[in-house]
UniProtKB/TrEMBL annotation:
Catalytic activity: an anthocyanidin + UDP-alpha-D-glucose + H(+) = an anthocyanidin 3-O-beta-D-glucoside + UDP
GO molecular function terms noted in the UniProt entry: anthocyanidin 3-O-glucosyltransferase activity
Pathway: Pigment biosynthesis; anthocyanin biosynthesis
InterPro entries: UDP_glucos_trans, UDP_glycos_trans_CS
BP-aspect Gene Ontology terms: anthocyanin-containing compound biosynthetic process
Protein name as catalogued: anthocyanidin 3-O-glucosyltransferase
Species of origin: Hevea brasiliensis
Family statement: Belongs to the UDP-glycosyltransferase family.
EC numbers, comma separated: 2.4.1.115
SUPFAM superfamilies assigned to the protein according to its UniProt record, in alphabetical order: UDP-Glycosyltransferase/glycogen phosphorylase (SSF53756)
Length: 393
């Protein structure tokens, strides 16, 4: 890597949380005199560029990093306008979005070919997001190699890959099974597998998973937290891509009310409804928001909240989370125990690691189809907020 003409091409995926990690990696992999290429989407009009460009503009300039725009037309794949990243997509279109991302294959090949033509040699390597499975073929076609970059944690990623490769649950005689690559004493449960993996009968791997405008100002959020005693507030968020079912949302709300614990809940429409639409009071118990406001017990935040600021506040005592890796890292870095409710991707394995291996979490339930009751919610919230959470971290 001694030549100043060496190039590394980095390809971040267009989903919340992925670009920031790729940018961080690019800075770490950026030696003196090296150029580093990254890609982002090209939009037809400047005013239509969403949070991805806000994140680019907010990052400090890197003199040895060249940003290269690549064309990406979602309309060619039947997706609505302004969905060039997954932020504005309803859940039922996420699969189509992943298919649309294959449209970047030819533009990336052209980029690599241009580098070969100008420099007389291919880039040192391509580092692509794990969701760009086609990058291996493209890199090989110009005489270089592709390295796959995952934004997930090592434990969850190992579990996810091993499950798809080995399908050990298909041979197991019970709901618990051993997973190759893990200690013999470690057992996984069938409910930790999402629906498609549970029904898989072959080993063909299928993979599915920037600044945002907050639904509340950081100042207002912190002022509300200041009203409560140390370690007394439960923070609830299921990440940028997830929600829960209408019945689960109702039971969660009742359980929170019955617990009497103060909470901040980042709330979105339940699964089955447009997640960008206005939140409806009918999805919560009658009079719920008025009651928690009068009690100063709860704060409902639409869309997005300043998560790291909330987790670092002294009043925050626990985090009810989907166990996405970003959320796990932010919670643990602030010493906040987790109540796990994994929903998709490798989240069930992250939850298992946190609860069984690290002892910093209690799993409340799993998935969108669990019949969680308000009594179970109250029981686990009381356990973590009153007793267990104090010795977990």
């Amino acid at each position: 890597m001694g030549s100043q003409n060496e190039h590394i091409v980095m390809l971040p995926f267009m989903a919340h949380g992925h670009p920031s990690h790729t940018f961080s990696c690019s800075s770490k992999a950026n030696p003196p005199q090296n150029w580093l290429h990254r890609h982002h989407r090209q939009y037809p009009f400047q005013h239509s560029i969403p949070s991805f460009h806000r994140q680019l503009s907010s990052s400090p300039p890197e003199p040895n990093i060249c940003l290269v725009e690549l064309p990406f037309s979602v309309a060619d794949y039947g997706l609505p306008a302004n969905t060039e990243n997954s932020e504005n997509l309803p859940l039922d279109l996420i699969g189509k979005f992943f298919t649309a991302s294959t449209g970047l294959k030819n533009p990336v090949h052209c980029l690599l070919s241009d580098i070969v033509a100008k420099e007389g040699k291919p880039p040192l390597c391509v580092i692509s997001d794990v969701f760009f499975g086609w990058a291996n073929e493209v890199a090989k076609s110009v005489g270089t190699v592709n390295l796959s970059f995952s934004t997930g944690g090592a434990y969850g990623s190992l579990a996810y890959i091993s499950l798809w490769l080995n399908l050990p649950h298909r041979q197991a005689g019970s709901d618990k099974f051993h997973l190759p690559g893990f200690p013999d004493s470690c057992r996984f449960h069938i409910t930790q597998l999402h629906q498609f993996l549970r029904n898989a009968d072959g080993s063909s791997i299928s993979i599915q998973r920037a600044g945002k405008q907050p639904g509340i100002s950081t100042k207002s959020c912190l002022e509300w937290l200041d009203l409560h005693s140390q370690g007394s507030v439960l923070y609830i968020s299921f990440g940028s891509q997830n929600s829960i079912s209408p019945s689960q949302m109702m039971e969660l709300a009742i359980g929170l009310e019955e617990s009497s614990k103060p909470f901040i809940w980042v709330i979105r429409p339940p699964v089955g409804f447009d997640r960008k639409a206005e939140f409806k009071a009918e999805w919560l118990p009658e009079g719920f928001e008025e009651l928690i406001n009068n009690r100063k017990q709860g704060l409902l935040v639409r869309n997005w909240a300043p998560q790291l600021e909330i987790l670092s506040h002294k009043s925050t005592g626990a985090f009810l989370s989907h166990c996405g890796w970003n959320s796990v890292l932010e919670s643990l870095s602030q010493g906040v125990p987790i109540i796990g409710w994994p929903l998709a991707a490798e989240q069930a394995y992250n939850s298992k690691m946190l609860a069984e291996e690290m002892g910093v979490s209690v799993e409340l339930t799993r998935g969108l189809h669990s019949n969680i009751t308000w009594k179970e919610v109250k029981k686990v919230v009381d356990l973590v907020m009153n007793q267990k959470g104090k010795v977990m971290i």
